[in-house]
């Protein structure tokens, strides 16, 4: 049985912090559909990391890390749209997108480690 503490993973910490920052930034936004979707995608990243790390096999873990990576792309797209609509400032958008891209790279590396491609 795998015994990993997802809370110790730097990628989980960073993605959790980003989710909190995004949710706080959207507080008071009246476009409830966009807010809901952006909150879901941002929360999905650390949630899928945690779920994957709690799974029994490396294959299952990698699958959930892929889900988290996909949610990064989804969140980045939604941040671009929210910025164009004026719900997120350009300055915040740059920070959020940069952090999400960094998290995506971290996830890609972790997937390779989990799959035994990189040691």
UniProtKB/TrEMBL annotation:
InterPro entries: 23S_rRNA-intervening_sequence, 23S_rRNA_IVS_sf. Gene3D superfamilies: 23S rRNA-intervening sequence. SUPFAM superfamilies: IVS-encoded protein-like. It comes from the Bacteria. NCBIfam families: four helix bundle protein, PRK12275.1-6. This is Four helix bundle protein. It comes from Aliivibrio sifiae.
């Amino acid at each position: 049985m795998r015994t990993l503490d997802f809370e110790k993973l730097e990628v989980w910490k960073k993605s959790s912090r980003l989710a909190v920052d995004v949710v706080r930034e959207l507080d008071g936004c009246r476009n409830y559909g966009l807010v809901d979707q952006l909150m879901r995608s941002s929360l999905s990243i650390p949630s899928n990391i945690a779920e994957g790390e709690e799974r029994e096999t490396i294959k299952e873990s990698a699958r959930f890390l892929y889900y988290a990576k996909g949610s990064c792309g989804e969140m980045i797209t939604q941040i671009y749209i929210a910025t164009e609509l004026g719900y997120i400032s350009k300055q915040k958008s740059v920070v959020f997108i940069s952090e999400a891209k960094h998290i995506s790279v971290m996830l890609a590396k972790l997937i390779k480690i989990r799959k035994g491609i990189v040691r």
